[in-house]
Design a protein that fits this description.
Layout lengths: L7 E5 L3 H13 L4 E5 L3 H12 L9 E4 L10 E4 L15 H17 L5 E4 L4 H12 L6 E3 L3 H15 L6 E2 L2 E2 L7 E2 L5 E2 L2 E2 H7 L1 H16 L1 H9 L4 H15 L4 E10 L5 E12 L2 E5 L6 H25 L1
Helix pairs in contact: 1-9, 3-4, 3-10, 5-7, 6-7
Length: about 325
């Protein structure tokens, strides 16, 4: 008798991000089955073989290369395929190339009979998550973008480094576009049990200047990494693994992902990075933080920027 595996992931795109994500899944024992799909079938097969050779040091997991037909019984389809950001390019510069690619990918996935959760990582992630939702016809809660999960992790790391506190004890969020118009929500940042405002008031000028520098380093982190090594992939792969774990374990964890807004934060018909509760059903609920006036203006600006690019891109692809 064959026992059907559960917690199956279909990964589309085995480039730097996709293969790093697969490695994170194996290391953390998150999935029971992983099928790797890529236009370069030899690359996908090579990755699957390489990962399988690490199974003696990890939890049991079925790993193999496949094609779109293998998505039919997947719980999650993760898309990392698409044109990569090059040095000097913004994430929004990639939109035209990648919407066309995504239309083909999503149509082939849905043709397999897939009825699970899409998790999108390709940039510009907010716009491509919206495109995936539109092309798939799935409910909004089952289409998730990686959003600002990596930016939030970068912020927590740098704030923790500044105060010499474990990153896991920093609670902070980056919201908005995963890109140049993102912003830090300082009004809801805590360091251990202390609200950030208490620490800033103790040494206001020096700390505030440092916080401004920290945010600039968060916002521009990808540019610095791309200049040095050509691409970013380890951090986002860990973020994707974290989202996958939250889904499979039905955690109801709050993560900053790209979610569809329907009135939250005074925005509609837009995928953008916000805190959301993630469980086995996908996005259970968008968490609507009370933003101060400056943060709300920053959020509105980010939303307008995304909508302008998105509307133009969709008009050109019709």
């Amino acid at each position: 008798m064959t026992i059907k595996c559960t917690n199956k992931v279909a990964l589309i795109g085995t480039g730097f991000v996709g293969s790093s994500y697969a490695f994170a899944l194996l290391n953390q024992g998150i999935a029971h089955e992983l099928v790797m799909i890529d236009m370069n079938k030899e690359k996908a097969d090579g990755d699957a073989r390489d990962l399988n050779h690490g199974l003696a040091f990890a939890s049991p997991m079925k790993i193999h290369a496949g094609d779109y037909s293998d998505c039919h019984d997947a719980d999650i389809v993760v898309i990392t395929a698409g044109a990569n950001q090059k040095s000097g390019e913004t994430r929004l510069d990639l939109v035209g190339k990648n919407i066309t690619i995504f239309k083909s990918i999503v149509e082939q996935v849905m043709a397999s009979g897939f009825n699970g959760i899409f998790l999108v990582a390709t940039n510009p992630v907010d716009i491509l998550t919206y495109a995936t939702w539109k092309f798939s016809g799935l409910p909004k809660e089952r289409v998730i973008g990686s959003g600002t999960i990596l930016d939030t992790a970068r912020l927590r790391y740098l704030v923790g480094e500044h105060f010499d506190i474990d990153t896991r004890n920093i609670h902070a969020y980056i919201m908005g576009e995963h890109g140049d118009t993102e912003f830090p929500v300082w009004s809801h940042t805590t360091v251990g049990a202390s609200h950030l405002s208490e620490l800033v008031d103790m040494n206001k000028e020096n700390v505030q200047n440092k916080l401004d520098d920290i945010f600039i380093n968060v916002r521009d982190a990808a540019y610095h990494i791309i200049e040095r090594k050509g691409a970013t992939y380890y951090g986002i792969a860990m973020g994707l693994a974290r989202i996958t774990k939250a889904i499979f374990n039905n955690e109801n964890s709050i993560l900053t992902v790209s979610s569809l807004l329907e009135g939250e934060y005074d925005q509609e018909d837009l995928y953008i990075g916000v805190p959301a509760i993630i469980n086995r059903e996908g996005i259970r609920k968008v968490v609507e933080l009370p933003l101060n006036d400056k943060e709300q203006r920053q959020f509105d600006h980010s939303a307008r920027t995304l909508k302008a690019v998105m509307n133009k891109a969709f008009a050109e692809t019709k």
